[in-house]
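Exercise (ungraded).
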Amino acid sequence: GIAPAVHAQAAIRWRLASSFPKSLDTIFGGAETFANAVRAMSGGKFEISVHAAGELMPAFGVVDGVQNGTVEVAHTAPYYFFGKDECFALGCAIPFGLNSRQTTAWMYEGNGLKLMREFYAKYNIINFPAGNTGAQMGGWFRKEMKSMADMKGLKFRIGGFAGKVIERIGGIPQNIPGGEIYQALEKGTIDAAEWVGPYDDQKLGFNKIAPYYYYPGWWEGGPQLDVFINQKAFDALSAENKAIVQAAAAQAHVTMQARYDAVNPGALKQLVGSGVKLRPFPQDMMNASFKASMELYSELNGKNPSWNKIYADLSKFRAEQNLWFRFTEAGFDRFMQAQKL
Amino acid sequence: GIAPAVHAQAAIRWRLASSFPKSLDTIFGGAETFANAVRAMSGGKFEISVHAAGELMPAFGVVDGVQNGTVEVAHTAPYYFFGKDECFALGCAIPFGLNSRQTTAWMYEGNGLKLMREFYAKYNIINFPAGNTGAQMGGWFRKEMKSMADMKGLKFRIGGFAGKVIERIGGIPQNIPGGEIYQALEKGTIDAAEWVGPYDDQKLGFNKIAPYYYYPGWWEGGPQLDVFINQKAFDALSAENKAIVQAAAAQAHVTMQARYDAVNPGALKQLVGSGVKLRPFPQDMMNASFKASMELYSELNGKNPSWNKIYADLSKFRAEQNLWFRFTEAGFDRFMQAQKL
């Protein structure tokens, strides 16, 4: 039998603050996968309770919460915190950055995780990749976007860092919480709104009031979710539990992307069936957005030494990844996408 | 303190037979990642020793080895075993099948894992996804392939199931172990050979004797590696250790793909720098190969009831995935690949 001393010794209870509501089963689900795996692997001796945004702290309060030890762990999209430092965006997604697989490769087998951990250490945080949505959609527009000129003065609900680029191409970025977007779009307070992709967007019903659905979401080609863990809480874990946390995060990482990929096609089909007009962004708008993004990054290189260091590595990795992906990966995908299947 | 009874009770030793040589650090490394994670999470109480191909049994003997309990676990590419039953290929890669992300989505969040486990149960095996190489290259050719006609009579070293399609388009598939390919290609015993991708291929030096390097490897758009575990050995594990095995496999799954993605670009650059001629397969060859593959699958539907059942699900999933991936994922990638980065 097992000695009672072992039980008593091993009991660990953590609280996890998510930046997401329970209704987003995809992305909120990533935190649940993580916590369930930790519980199962530890035989219930390491329990992490998962709390939706607003339950313990606001969605955008979770970095403060982990930093000051109010909670041991958060599950979030790091780019929400670019206002503290633009480098948070580098750990998640920047306009014209990496796609999902490339982000994972940079983190696990490039210098990404090492560089981001150096940065997060300033906030008493150690991070583990724990999910990705894949390339997001460009969002819902009340009117058709025929060229770059249509961006001028457009009030566009867009999350976080990407707003800096929207401003540079003539748009007016609006920061509106998820629950209030529908009403703003319906009333015409805003002209367009981006959220995530077909499966999550469908729940919010944007197709009823903004029929044009644009792609690609060039500001998030593969945004990564992370678990942010208070460094002191992590350091206090046994070597076994540290390894358990790492593997549980990897499990959440792989299953969240799989879940998005599995559920998006059906949602897109239903949306198109309901009359949604699926459109690519005009080429001149793509080009202008790319140019504006590169100019922004150049300016940040001069202002923010951490950005300069991390972005130099990321952009070199990005160039190499695209050189490779354009041949066999893109060749295979392009052929398959052209077939009648 | 910990009671001695707990220690004695928990000591588990497994042997893992890999189908790969140690020299393939990418793919052999997946088994090491898996075993190291299990060891770390269990505090050394669950030890898996990792053995290269040939050490305990031949590369292609590992399914028999797990089935009859000679080893508890194998790490392999299931399509090697299509001679036992074509369904093994469905759990790994078939010509014009799914890409890496789509395979993972089908397994974790579609019906893939459920259907494959039903099938593997006949072999006393329970499987866990544990790696993917991404889309492989189409291989090394001594002469340029200008059209479909150049496939006629071509002696092509190609692994496993894809040979059935090569035959149908006029080629002569050759099954030659990795270590003997170079000599066969140098002597002209064969005209072409495929292996994996730039990083693994570079080690074997094919570029010195067959200058044309083709893409895409349409017969393996995202081949999955698995850990195959003897069902009785798995059933004997505690719930904690079962969860540890699952998470360790997920960790191997995500890190192997990341590793391939991180190392392939540099190898491709070096190969091209050494004079390799990178070429897409001629369009008529792609089309004929696709047609021949679909005909083969129709025939198998009539002959093999398990194939019929699993392929029906996979092909429906494939159609939906390509519908979705062609818009925002492909749109983002295509734009990025066209930029000067």
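Further reading is listed at the end of the chapter. For now, observe: The longest strand of chain B covers residues 125-132. Chain B touches chain A through 86 residues (CB under 8 Å).
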